Amino acid sequence: MLVAWFGTGKRKAWYVTLLQTSTISVSAKLIKLQPVAPGHSFLFGHLLYLKSMIDKLPPNAHYQSALGDVAREHFQKEGVFYIDLWPVSGLLIVVVSPHVANQIHANPNISMRRPTLLPRFFRPICGGPSMFDMPEHKWKFWRPVFSRGFSADHILSLVPGMVDETVIYCETLQKLAQKGELFYLDFTTLRFTIDVIGRTILYAITSPLQSNIRLLLTHTMKGMYH
Known about the structure:
It is a single chain. By secondary structure, the chain is mainly alpha-helical. It has 2 domains: 2-111, no CATH class; 151-225, no CATH class. It has 11 helices and 2 strands, in the order ααααββααααααα. It has helices at 2-6, 9-32, 47-54, 64-74, 98-106, 108-111, 118-126, 136-147, 152-179, 185-202, 208-225; strands at 80-84, 91-95. It has a two-stranded antiparallel ribbon with strand order 1-2. It is globular. The chain starts with a helix and ends with a helix.
């Protein structure tokens, strides 16, 4: 079945060579990297193992919950592990320990590196490069432009408005929980995020611009789900 999908002749040989090269390369990296999630497959990485963990979750639960279960079952001491999502993605490092996360954050050689997949997720929202996915040399140019907005005094002056919006967010979650029905937490949290940003930047509790941005981001996120 796999060979039939690859096709015949030169196309088949090219796909097989690509498959062998990629899997051997990833397998070689996994030998050097520790700790690694169990159940690795030469052809499918950890996808089959991850599926077995996802199958244990409630229906419609986010797949990242399965990564937490892997950490609890196998890597409580280490607080970090590698997982191979090839061919869908690549090697990922999952960090569940605050101590390990702090070490990564304190090392500029690691913390300043942007994941290669980050621009793919932010491009539909930002339309191009942003502070979230810029490489370090470009990010350093723009950082001073926005640094005043993140000063301690300015952030403290915004706390009362953040608290007001957080209270509304909590009340919304309580009402949704009382209904006992399944709902998307992402969409509710997205509205909360836009409301906080609008109150902070636009100095308004509600505005047409906020509504349009909220609608745009909601449609973008729905496209990521479906």
